[in-house]
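name: query_chain
kind: protein
chains: 1
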Amino acid sequence: MTAQDLRKVSDAIQKVLRTAVRAKADPEAFPKDFLIRNRGKNRNCPRCGGRIEKVTVSGRSGYACPDCQA
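structure:
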């Protein structure tokens, strides 16, 4: 990754953390375009409308859009 890429990732992480603090980590209080509100079986990505997939790695589960988060 370039220094510019790292800066973009850092800025995005800070934005998400600020949003989570403001929402008091309540998934329903997050903006509608955040993936956390759309986690679960048979849900769609708020960005592209594609199907959200559950991913399990080393016993930990998470959700991702295979198109937007590839």
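note: The chain has two domains: 1-30, 40-70.
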